């Protein structure tokens, strides 16, 4: 089952949340590699004991030569590059397999809203279709997951779980004998599609578009189940896995020899007491690189029985329960239609907070506080002059000052005309919006009891919305058309006085 720690790292604290995660055992790196670490330290200690106690001078010289050679040539193995690329491939493949797992919720929703009827036959059709969908997924999981295979070793256990009937088991076994080399996970989807077509012929499904949508969802579900089988059949290339494994273990075999302490003046660690008694950095290097390899080994097949593998048995139970709940218990059921608390406001301005101090301001765009200055406009309208000429001629400076003042006046008049035009257009838009609001209020008060007592101060009475009858619908359409004609006439009257202003050129063009 996946080890989750999302709640522990939801917000940053004074002490790093990641440091607290280091003390977990289940799903940890310590659980994966404590055996390898003990083997590494044991071999290192044995070689150190042999060098310091058992070897004579000639053998000690040969051992020292091997240590210095391994230590100098150890970096020729590109372990970081090989391991990093391999783990990246495995992680991408791991998440892609999870996103490929199909969920029957969308199919159950389509079946519930498309297959009509409360009789036993319609109910049996809905439940059987969803049972076949869950059966397809269960058969696929038994083919790729050891934990599911242990739970359902044969079809008899699937029958006991309620996913398969005895007559269906006989059909599958007969086809297995006739075609033993091909998986039969697609058979329940074919049965479900046949039931959908039967429901259409019996008018349980009322249109062909619903049939097409359901068939498309069934095909999509079958396709995702097929992709899970493809991931099981086609693994990461074996040669790459072998290269990574050989590189890692060869690196640390040389590291055990190359990190030994030797009593040789040519060795850089001859006078280092830490390396002499406990090679802490060599052990940490082994811990990190070997842990990297163990991560890849754990995630390369997420349907196994490791701590971080997917909980596919829970998925089987959940999918069957939710499918029956949607197509049977919740079929054609919904809460009573009531007015929401923002009915009179159309939409809420601000939603409430328990702690008002937690309310955040709306996001501000990057150019919200950027106001173009007058100098920028002047720089845009005026050609750049040579500084040498301005310093040499005093009269040209006076002319430049005069021209600057004139340009300021021109820009000021231009801005005033633009503000006037924008205010006129805004007033017209506000008036049109007010007409639309009044129209919505009239339509709202037409069918509903929206009389609010003026003296008591109580809110509107909550009433149930009933669907209008054909007679009231026809009457409302006639009144709505008349109101639209009246509103169009009012808008034309509003726009007529402003037509001259619209056709008149702004001051900047005169």
TrEMBL record:
Give the protein's biological function: Forms chloride channels.
- Which UniProt key words apply to this protein? Cell membrane, Chloride, Chloride channel, Ion channel, Ion transport, Membrane, Transmembrane, Transmembrane helix, Transport
Classify the source by domain of life. Answer: Eukaryota
Which membrane topology describes this protein?
Multi-pass membrane protein
Compositionally skewed regions (Acidic residues) per UniProt: 480-491
Q: Which family does it belong to?
A: Belongs to the anion channel-forming bestrophin (TC 1.A.46) family. Calcium-sensitive chloride channel subfamily.
Q: List, alphabetically, the InterPro entries matched.
A: Bestrophin, Bestrophin-like
Output one GO MF annotation.
chloride channel activity
Gene Ontology CC terms: chloride channel complex; plasma membrane
The protein's matches in Pfam families, at most eight in alphabetical order, are given as: Bestrophin (PF01062)
Q: Where are the transmembrane segments?
A: 32-55, 76-95, 239-262, 274-292
Q: Compositional bias (Basic and acidic residues) spans?
A: 492-510
Instruction: Give the organism, scientific name.
Output: Drosophila navojoa
Q: What is this protein called?
A: Bestrophin homolog
Q: Which PANTHER family match?
A: BESTROPHIN, BESTROPHIN 1, ISOFORM C-RELATED
What is the annotated localization of this protein?
Answer: Cell membrane; Membrane
Where do the record's region annotations for Disordered lie? 445-510
* Principal place of residence: membrane
